[in-house]
Specification:
The complex is a heterodimer of chains A (232) and B (239). Chain A is α+β, with helices and mostly antiparallel strands. Chain A has helices at 17-28, 45-50, 70-80, 92-118, 122-146, 162-171, 174-181, 187-190, 192-203, 205-210, 214-230, and strands spanning 8-12, 34-37, 59-62, 65-68. In chain A, strand 1 (8-12), helix 1 and strand 2 form a beta-alpha-beta unit. Chain B contains nine helices and four strands. Chain B is globular, with a radius of gyration of 18 Å. Chain B has helices spanning 21-33, 49-54, 74-84, 97-123, 126-149, 166-172, 175-185, 196-207, 218-233, and strands at residues 12-16, 38-41, 63-66, 69-72. Chain B is α+β, with helices and mostly antiparallel strands. Chain B is 53% helix and 7% strand. The chains are: A alpha+beta (232), B alpha+beta (239). Chain A binds chain B through residues 53, 62, 65, 67-69, 72-73, 75-76, 79-80, 92-93, 95-96, 99-100, 103-104, 138, and chain B through 57, 66, 69, 71-73, 76-77, 79-80, 83-84, 97-98, 100-101, 104-105, 108-109, 142.
Chain lengths: 232, 239
């Protein structure tokens, strides 16, 4: 790929797990890109122009053409820059499974688990914590299966792939979840594979570069929660 | 209608309910590809062991079981069908990566925005239902606009171009349900005046080979929706 042949921009926000996915994906493929930080107070004209339907980050702008929705962007990145490291599994069945679990992570894990702790109080928050433990248990089992009992490091098996990227972006929120929920997730006793997997992923250059500081995420989460509870 | 799954493609079973729009999406994909399968009608009040085993997470239909392995979530199943029978025409996904991303975007839009609004119309009452109708119309108008202005779709017979594709199946699978919902709730969701392209597209879709044969019986869908809505409004029975 020659210099100046391609223009790749990402409209991003540093705490957004969805934006983090896209940046990790581009790093993994060694694609040169420019990251443009959207602020929270108001949306830029570029964002509204590039994603008029949802007006949300991330947006990948490839030679002027926008692609929206993080999981869709990951698939696009994989197809446009195949390289030697495919994100998607090689056979249709495993691809369907990867998509199924990525969807589970974004709907149940995020919606009922993470948001159940971030946005709720009292008994409702306790329920959120219970769901999170249940879902971590399911994902621990999925990792066991997909990693061939732990003989391979990732959800993608040997390959750091689609499902790994889809999930790792949410893991910087665990410190915030534990602080806000005033609890500790029993990683060593209940989810040792996930714990090991997170360590392995954090060692990757792409994740190391892009992953936000969990402390900063905690600060952000505290402010978010205060604001949310005040207006709801 | 059930056909024995056999042959070099292996065994294909579909767990479903004949009135479900999500099941219909999968049936359309299978019909378009000419894939033989065995349809198993689930009783959703009394789910089979096979369903519970095949989709333990959501316990929902449709589930496609191909050579014993289950695939869940209707649009994931449609992509799976396209990839597993990629050599069989028609192609349900575009070839170009950008066009594929656009197709996936609009299918996701239909599932994330349109479907929840329609659900709101289905179960809602009074003011809440009115709001759901308005939101449904807003989202359907975005699809109308996409048909009119998006270079991927504009001027073509279907979202997929000359032939039915991924987005057509995502939205078209809901056609019967949408039409019956309009009747049952006395609301207008897709109207010819404000959505001329979408209306024409829906008529074309419903008449297409591979779709019209498997369309759920409109009278039965209306009966189902009306019966469910009575349940939603009735006070819970005392034990």
């Amino acid at each position: 790929m020659g210099e100046g042949e391609e223009q790749v921009k990402v409209l991003s926000q540093w705490p957004s797990p969805f934006a983090i996915r896209v940046l990790i994906g581009l790093e993994e493929k060694n694609v040169r890109y420019e990251s443009l930080e959207e602020n929270f107070a108001s949306k830029t004209e570029l964002l509204v122009q590039m994603n008029p339907i949802h007006r949300k980050v991330p947006v990948l702008i490839h030679n002027g053409k926008p692609i929206c929705e993080s999981l869709i962007i990951l698939q696009y990145i994989d197809e446009v820059w195949p390289g030697s490291n495919s994100f998607m599994p090689s056979n249709p069945y495993d691809r369907a499974l990867a998509k199924f679990w990525a969807d589970f992570i974004d709907t149940k894990f995020l919606g009922t688990g993470i948001h159940g702790i971030l946005k709720k109080t009292g008994e409702a928050q306790e329920e959120g914590k219970r769901y999170m433990l249940e879902y971590l248990g399911l994902l621990e089992g999925v990792l066991k299966e997909f990693s061939a009992g732990g003989s391979k490091p990732y959800f993608g098996g040997e390959q750091f792939g689609f499902l790994d990227i889809a999930f790792i972006c949410h893991t910087c929120w665990f410190e915030a979840m534990e602080t806000l929920g005033k609890w500790k997730i029993p990683w060593e006793s209940e989810f040792p594979r996930l714990l090991e997997w997170m360590k392995k992923c954090r060692e990757r250059e792409s994740v190391h570069k892009i992953f936000p500081d969990p402390h900063k995420i905690l600060e952000y989460a505290i402010k978010f929660r205060e604001g949310y509870l005040r207006s709801n | 209608m059930s056909m024995e799954g056999s042959g070099e493609e292996g065994q294909v079973k579909l767990l479903g309910a004949s009135l479900s729009p999500f099941v219909f999406r999968v049936r359309i994909a299978l019909a378009l590809k000419g894939i033989h399968y065995h349809f198993i009608e689930e009783n959703l009040q009394n789910k089979s062991q096979l369903l519970l085993q095949s989709n333990p997470i959501h316990k929902k239909i449709p589930v496609l079981i191909h050579n014993g392995k289950p695939v869940c979530e209707s649009m994931i199943i449609v992509q799976y069908i396209e990839e597993s029978w990629g050599n069989k025409a028609p192609n349900l996904m575009p070839k170009d990566p950008y066009d594929r991303a656009i197709a996936r975007f609009w299918a996701a839009f239909i599932d994330d925005k349109v479907v929840p609004c329609l659900r709101g119309v289905f179960i809602g009452q009074g003011e809440q239902q009115q709001k759901a109708v308005q939101e449904s119309v807003v989202n359907l108008l975005l699809l109308e606009e996409a048909l009119r202005t998006n270079p991927c779709f504009s001027g073509k017979l279907y979202f997929g171009g000359d032939e039915i594709g991924f987005v057509d199946i995502a939205l078209g699978g809901l056609s019967g349900f949408v039409k019956a919902l309009q009747k049952a709730t006395n609301s207008v969701l897709i109207d010819e005046e404000n959505m001329p392209l979408l209306s024409a597209w829906m008529d074309r879709f419903c008449e297409a080979d591979g779709v019209k044969e498997g369309m759920p019986d409109p009278a039965k869908v209306l009966e189902f929706i009306s019966a469910m809505r009575v349940k939603f409004t009735s006070p819970p029975t005392a034990k």
